[in-house]
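Provenance and format

Records in this collection were gathered into a single text stream. Each protein contributes a sequence line and a C-alpha cell line. The two records reproduced below are adjacent in the stream.
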Amino acid sequence: MGLIAEFREFALKGNVLDLAVGVIIGGAFGGIVNSLIKDIIMPVVGLAGNVDFSEAKLLLRAKDAANPKSSDIFLSYGNFITIFINFIILAAAIFLVVKLFNNARKRFEKEKAAPPPAGPSSTDKLLMEIRDALKSGR
C-alpha cells in the first residue's frame, strides 16, 4: 500500500474527525472556563484580599552599584501560581462535565430495555439434538 493511500485511509477514519471536533470544542471550553476563572471566581476570591499573584517575585540578586550594566535578578513565581490555580479550576470543571456526562449516559442506558435473550441458534439446536441422541444411545 502506498504512502498516499495509507494517509488517506488514516485521515478518513472516524477517529480523526472525532479528535478534530474534540480539539475544537476543547479550545472553546477552555475559553469559557478561563472567563469563568478571570471574570467570576477571581473577583469573588479577591474580596478576601489581594489575590493577584501575577506580579509576585523574589529578589535573588540586587543590581550591582559598581556595574551599571547589571540588573536585578528575580524569581518570578507569581505567574506560575496564577496559572496553577487556573489549571486546578479547569481540571475541576472538566471533571464535573465528564461526571455529569457519565451519569447521563448510565441513566440513558438503564432506560433502554434490555432485549430478551435470543433463543438458541439453529447450530445450537442441532448440537443439542446430537447431544441428546448420544445420551439416549440412539
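Adjacent record:
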Amino acid sequence: MIKRLYLNVFFRVLIDYCILGLAFGLTRDLLTLKGAPFADPANKWVLSFSFLSWWYIGRAFHLFEDYRSRPFALEGIRILKTILVLGCCLTFLFFYVLKSYPFPRTFTLTFTTLMFTLIIVEKFMVKQAMLYFPGRDAKGKKILIVGASQVGLDFYTAILQNRNSRFQVAGFIDENIPPYPGAAYLGKLSQLPEVLDRTEIDDVFVALPQWQQKEIKEVIGVSEKNAKQVRIIPHVHRSYSRKSQMSLLEGVPVLTLSPTPLDDPAKQRLKRTLDLFFTIILAITVLSWLCPLIALAIWLTSKGPILFKQERWGLGNRRIVCYKFRTMYHGCYQTDAQGKYAQARKTDKRITPVGAFLRKTSLDELPQFFNVILGDMSVVGPRPHPTPLNLESGDKVPNYMRRHTVKPGITGWAQVNHARGETRIPTKMQDRVTLDLWYIENWNFWLDIQIMFQTFINLVKGEEEAA
C-alpha cells in the first residue's frame, strides 16, 4: 500500500515536470522571437531551479495529495498558491542572481501564466481519469463493520452516498440485526472468526461503543490473527469535523476534534510577525498623523474621554481591555429597558456626529493596534464582543465560544463578507460565527493578506452594515 502511494506521488510529480518543461519551452520560443539569446547556459539554471522549487513548494501546499474525494476547487486554489510562490522565487532569482537574464519580467509572467493554465487542465484531466478508471484500490477494498450502532450506520451511509468511495461494505457484525435497508447481517460477535474465514474481507472497522472495551480487544485480536487491518471509529461522530486528527502524545493515541492551523507554534509566530510588521508600518505611515487628528475632532465636538475602554474576551476566554475612539456621548446608557446590552444601531441617538463618521469608516477601531502590540489581539481574527453580548451569545448560538480558540482581530473574514453591525436577530450572529469558524479552520498567511486588502477596499467604499 505504501509503495503504491509513493508511486502515485512519483507519477503526479513526473507529469507536473513534463508540463513545467513544456511551459518553459513555449516561453523560450515566444521570447526567442524577440531576439533573446536563449542558447544561454542560464536557461539550464532557471529550469533546474524551477523543478526544485516546484517540488518543495508543491509539498508545502499539499499539491501532490490524492484529490479524488475532494472538490476540484480546493486543488485549484493550491495550484494557484504554488504558481504565485514560484513566480516570487523566479523574481528573486532574476533580481539577485541572474541579473543579465533577458526579459526577466516578461519571462516570469508568461511562464507562470502558461504553467497555471496547463497545470489546471492537466490536473482536471488526471482527476477525471482517476474517477473513470478508479483502479484496484478504489472499489476493490471490502470491509466489515463490527457494531451496528449509530456510528456504524452513519459510516455505512456515507460510503453508499460517496460514489468515489474506496470501500465496499461486505456486511455488519453485531449482537442484533442492524435495522437498516440493504445492510448485510453476517452474524454475532462470537461468530467473527467464521465470518472472516468464509468472507473476503480486507479491513475491519470497529464501531462498538467505548464501554465495550473487552469486546473491542477481542475483535482486534481475532482480526489481527486473520491478518486483517483494524480501524477504530470513535464514538464522537456528532462532535468531530472533516479535519479531526489522530496523533500520538506521549505514546498515547489522542483524537483532536477540531484541529486548526494555528495550533502549530510556528504558524502562531508567523502570524504574530505579520501583525507586528503591519502595525509598525501602519503606525509610521498613517497612525502617526491620523490618530491625533481624530482625537482632536472628538475633543472639540463632545465632552468626555477621547478613548473608550471596554472589557471583552480574548484567546482562551481571557478578559482583555479593548481600546476604541469614543463614538458615543459620554455617560449614555449601555443597557436597554430589559437590562440587556444595548447594541448600537444606525440611527442610534447615543452616537455623536463625528462618531457616526468613525463608525462608517471603521476608523474608531484604530486604537486597537495598541492591543495588537500588547499581544491581546491580532490584526485579523474574529471580532471580540462586549462581555454582556458574549455571555448572551454563548448560551444561544451553537459553537460561539470556539471563536476564542484564536486571538480576536481588528478585522476578520466575517467583516469583509459584510457580516457586521447589529446582531439582534440570532441568525445574523450565527452567520457571523459560521464565517469566523471557517477562518479559524482554514487560516493561512495569504488569507490574512487577502482580508487586510479587502478591509482597505471596504474602508474606502464605506460599509452600509456599520452602525
